[in-house]
Amino acid sequence: MQRSIATVSMSGTLIEKLTAIQAAGFDGIEIFENDLLYFDGSPADVRRIAADLGLEITLFQPFRDFEGVSGERLARNLERAKRKFDLMHELGTNRILVCSSASPDTIRDDALIADQLGALALAAQQAGVYAGYEALAWGRHVNSYRHAWRLVDAVNHPNLGLVLDSFHTLAIGDSVDEIAAIPGERIAFVQIADAPKLAMDVLEWSRHYRCFPGQGDFDLAGFTARVVEAGYTGPLSLEIFNDGFRAAPTATTAADGYRSLLLLEEQTRGAMKAAQAGGEARHAGGDAAVALFEPPAAPAHVGFQFLEFAVDDTARAHLADWLGKLGFRQTGRHRSKDVELFQHGDASIVLNAEADSFASAFFQQHGLSLCASAFRVNDARLAFQRAAGFGYAPFSGRVGPNERVLPAVQAPDGSLNYFVDETPDEPTLFEADFVLADRSANEAARGPIAGIDHVCLSLPAASLDTWVLFLRTAFGFEPEPGQLVPDPYGLVRSRALRSRDGSVRVALNASVDRHTAVAEALHTYRGSGLNHVAFHTADIFRAIPHFVARGLPLLKIPRNYYDDLAARYALPDQTIDALYENNILYDRDAQGGEFFHAYTELLDQRFSLEIVERRGGYDGYGAANAAVRLAAQAQQRRHAAR
Amino acid sequence: MQRSIATVSMSGTLIEKLTAIQAAGFDGIEIFENDLLYFDGSPADVRRIAADLGLEITLFQPFRDFEGVSGERLARNLERAKRKFDLMHELGTNRILVCSSASPDTIRDDALIADQLGALALAAQQAGVYAGYEALAWGRHVNSYRHAWRLVDAVNHPNLGLVLDSFHTLAIGDSVDEIAAIPGERIAFVQIADAPKLAMDVLEWSRHYRCFPGQGDFDLAGFTARVVEAGYTGPLSLEIFNDGFRAAPTATTAADGYRSLLLLEEQTRGAMKAAQAGGEARHAGGDAAVALFEPPAAPAHVGFQFLEFAVDDTARAHLADWLGKLGFRQTGRHRSKDVELFQHGDASIVLNAEADSFASAFFQQHGLSLCASAFRVNDARLAFQRAAGFGYAPFSGRVGPNERVLPAVQAPDGSLNYFVDETPDEPTLFEADFVLADRSANEAARGPIAGIDHVCLSLPAASLDTWVLFLRTAFGFEPEPGQLVPDPYGLVRSRALRSRDGSVRVALNASVDRHTAVAEALHTYRGSGLNHVAFHTADIFRAIPHFVARGLPLLKIPRNYYDDLAARYALPDQTIDALYENNILYDRDAQGGEFFHAYTELLDQRFSLEIVERRGGYDGYGAANAAVRLAAQAQQRRHAAR
Which of the residues A98, A115, A498, A531 has the least number of beta carbons within 10 Å of its own beta carbon? Predict the structure, then answer.
């Protein structure tokens, strides 16, 4: 399908927007009127610039408050429309969006409105253009696509069609089922927007909180599947009013928008197949009349292969010391590079101090930091092809003789994401690349850590949605609802994603404010960085004393927290005391699942290590305890600053 | 009345909060439970620290989801309450807030709830504490103070009272009238919060958008007047959940909170007088049982006396050149300082280059900037006393022989605000302080500018509310509704205030994002600064060509803007052409009032001068044109950056 985006969806001047839109891969744009008004050049200039970039102007918009008016007002509105039709000729587009009137004095009379839309269709015909009528969710009289369609159908004129917008339909909880029955050629245009589910006025919600498909909570695939089933073959066009996007880097926003459309096409294909399989397809004939993006399926994940830190000698010593206190043992040394492997249970940590490498460049920019994550998947080549197909930059580093070539893409912060698979009867990755220590000694020394539970990253506020899209598109991860967490010095937005099998979990933290722990860590990282790595254990009450005895410095949790736990939950006094003594935080879900977790102090003022135990199917991350942890970390930072 | 604030209302650790609250002048605090949980010390430590600071702990809160439960759950909840009562003894407070249950499984049975609240009252009595029952606006069964009062009244126990919270009452549009009929001694506690009127879910609204009295849209004086009429003599306590305050400097927030209570007390006094005058007072006896703050009344303003810029020689030459192009003439030189006076119509501009002065220090910090504003008032001494009474720092500079001593306070950005009055038969301020040029030459040279229309300031995002409170408390200005304006690189919040007579208007701009014109100007100012000064004229179509002929560089507005004006308004083509040729922006209000305004280019990449003409009672600031202006300024900045 033609992939289009409205200029209002991103920041910058009109020229900056067009350039970024073209670079992202789109072939169409909607010109939002304000962008034209503020442009210091003629509409013909815009036409020429867009043509030079290979961008078709798919739509001009919006035209407001046309219908349901007095006869005198109708004449004025037709005059206004004709001026815009003239402008459209200069601009080189023949489609205009007319949104249902939101004026308080709209006359609520369908027959009158149909007459007036008929007059508009006639004027459009005379000007050689097409008008598309869209129901705004807050339209005064017309606020559903079904109502708008009845009017458009009643007018029955070739120069008047229906405009569908996923937000206006899904925000009011309208059913999408009847879309498939609308003749595709009568649908003038389709606009796509996602949004988080928010309990607020629909107009404010629409103007400030729309987001790209995959970043919000709407079933856009279901919506788009019905559009395709209707036989619509025009553009799918993103129209996103988002306060964050208004201030974010233009090129990144455009690139994310394009990826989000690709993801939507893949999901739409799935939704259509599901409908066909269920015998629900509204349209005979099976395959869609349009081509939809079809990447390799998201890989089945089987867990973290390793986490790789960029270090220098000092940082390596520091981190290796803490890993040792956690019971990790150095189990390998890279065959050709200054890289060491530490393992405990199924958790593998790589410390990379190789000079003149990606890791050393990363270290120079960010200091001690997570420079790569490797994921074990069923088919690494296909997983890589999928990620690259969504436009994430491939990466290849130096490879020594007989060492494994790992396909990788760069994450939004420039760190690497490797895909690793294993072939039976061939050396494993670690066997191929590392000189390994004696395995039996390792097995004998098994400690309480079973593996990596999750990784949490600290991100700049503007890049949270970019990361959500990265993990959804490239990895096929599923997002969980967002959380807002108080730090003593501001708020932190948090959102977790996981692989379908739950074996890989990534939590994202982005600070709303400038002086939270998350924001200050970002500052030391000069960019994004690790917030914490969580290791899981089957017995946290055994593990923690073990680690503390070895000297691991735990984040101290105030006694008052435990007194409140005692009031909230019917926990035995000895459990409360054991939690307090070990600085273990506690959470319980509605089904009685329990979460026990403890944090180390901040390492290098940047990140911490977490030990978690899940019982009874607890599936979250202890969000209820984030505030007490952030307050304790602030306390630690204040002590360190003295 | 006792002035109290909840610890949740500001950022920081508990100790930082207590210190700031004491310094601001409060004598009471509510301990919000989370602040205690995160505190690394015992409740007894908090008691001691608060006592050392002279702060009474007026309340411990919140206790949630107590009532409307099964018998088994009631026993657990009573156990939970008893633990909190123990904690209150350690903390040294005897009052706890119990908010109405928001749990979905609340049993909706008033008789049962009254029984259970009775059990709570008994437990409180046994523990020697008092429980206050508050209706949350989103309470599952009990969500109005009237309902809560019926229950409290039914229990009829001395250890159970009613808690009133202005937000919960006013957010649901409830009438405050019945408050005055509640016996004052049955009101356990009164919480105060203002909020902007927003169309959103009341819980989200309450948790993120509360603000101090005077910063929002609620009639808090009406609410508080009824509370005082009821005979309540306990604390008025601010409880503000505000995302901005969570990240703002703790001391500033606390100081603003204290001022906002003083303002509320003044307004409450007014509301009570008004009710008495109208015969509406619910309580016989006239004067309130409590003392309410009574500052000198807000001054009657009669306009801007002068605006004073901090300059060096280069900046003076630059600004004097532009003022000359606007038809200003140098009309005076200060008797003892390196200060010059420029005038045109009623507009007076002072350029201050005096070495080793406040102005030179201001220039060193901020560069070419507005360092002082002088307001003509009916009584300068009383105006100053009022401002100082609200806690704004007085300022005195050096004064030469026979020069006038001007009372002044420092604004939130450190600039000065002078109050000036005139005594008949005595020299005017300018006559006293300046050697003035021949007045007749001045009169003969009168140009098209009549005076100063308004001043617009650029502020850091966190200080917009601080400024609103400054202008309301110290000056008695009235705020207008806020606006959100798009810049090409983000959003700008804008709010205007004016003196009651409309002779002084100040608009405040604060950038939500980091790369708007407003944010970048703040960066060059290193703090707050002037956005623009608007001068009014009676004939903008005569004025602009006059200024342009003298070489004033106007901000260029794109032709497309005018083509859209032509489509939107039935303006004659020659008017459109004249607007375009003169780069004049146009707005029209619902009553047909018209606004014509043009901007200069940015001076020193910081601020601009605006020429405005108001016709037919137009009373706004052309907010509809802010976006095109910001886009044109962005264009100019891009050109300058090349």
Answer: A115
pLDDT, averaged across chain A = 94
Annotated binding-site residue? A134: yes
Mean pLDDT, residues B357-364 taken together: 95
- Does CATH place domain A452-642 in 3.10.180.10? yes
Answer yes or no: are the C-beta atoms of B340 and B334 closer than 8 Å: yes
Contact B47, B90 (CB under 8 A): yes
Token pair 């102005």: residue: B359
Cα separations (Å) of B274 from A452, B232, B289? Answer: 68, 19, 17
Query: Does CATH place domain B296-447 in 3.10.180.10?
Result: yes
pLDDT over threshold 60, residue A285: no
Residue A577 has pLDDT above 60, yes or no: yes
pLDDT band at A638; cut points 50, 70, 90:
confident
Q: Which residues of A touch B8 (CB under 8 A)?
A: none
| Residues of chain B contacting A561 with CB distance shorter than 8 Å | 37-38
Nearest residue on chain A to B625, alpha-carbon basis: A38
List the single residue in B37, B203, B489 with the smallest CB-CB distance to A561: B37
How is residue B76 written in tokens? 């657990």
| Mean pLDDT (whole number) for B16-23 | 97
Name chain B contacts of A567, Cβ cutoff 8 Å: 79-80, 83-84
Is B165 assigned to a binding site?
Answer: yes
**Where in chain A is CATH 3.20.20.150?**
3-277
Check A41 against B486: CB less than 8 A apart: no
Confidence band, pLDDT 50/70/90 cuts, at residue A401: confident
Task: Indicate the CATH number for domain B450-642.
Answer: 3.10.180.10
Residues of A in contact with B12 (CB under 8 A): 488-489
Q: What is the mean pLDDT of residues A530-536?
A: 97
Distance from C-alpha of A34 to C-alpha of A61, rounded to nearest angstrom: 9
CATH topology of domain A301-447: 2,3-Dihydroxybiphenyl 1,2-Dioxygenase; domain 1 (3.10.180)
**A286 token code pair:** 């099976």
Confidence at residue B287, expressed as pLDDT on a 0 to 100 scale: 55
Q: For CATH 3.10.180.10, list the domain ranges present in chain A.
A: 301-447, 452-642
Interface contact flag, A204 B201, Cβ < 8 Å? no
The whole-angstrom separation of Cα B39 and Cα B45 is 10
Interface contact flag, A83 B567, Cβ < 8 Å: yes
* Residue of B33, B89, B246 to mutate for A, most A C-beta atoms under 10 A: B246
Under 8 Å CB-to-CB from A575, ≥6 apart: which residues? Answer: none
For residue A515, what pLDDT is reported? 87
Strands, E assignment, B320-479: 329-334, 339-344, 347-352, 369-377, 394-395, 408-410, 416-420, 434-436, 449-459, 478-479
pLDDT in tens, A101-155: 999 999 999 999 999 999 999 999 999 999 999 999 999 999 999 999 999 999 9
With an 8 Å Cβ cutoff, are A489 and B33 in contact?
Answer: no
Q: Say which range, B58-67, B441-450, B485-494, has the weakest mean pLDDT.
A: B441-450
Number of residue pairs across A and B with CB atoms under 8 Å? Answer: 140
Amino acid A443: pLDDT:
65
> Is A191 annotated as contributing to ligand binding?
yes
Average pLDDT over residues B176-186: 97
A550-559, A564-573, B283-292: segment of lowest average pLDDT = B283-292
Show residues of chain A in contact with B80, CB under 8 Å.
Answer: 567-568
ipTM of this model? Answer: 0.90
CB contact under 8 A, B246 and A568: no
**In CATH, what is the architecture of A3-277?**
Alpha-Beta Barrel (3.20)
Shortest CA distance to B244 belongs to which of B459, B6, B512?
B512
Q: What is the distance, to the nearest Å, from the Cα of residue A363 to the centroid of all Cα atoms in its chain?
A: 26
Q: How far is the alpha carbon of A638 from chain B, nearest alpha carbon, in Å? A: 10
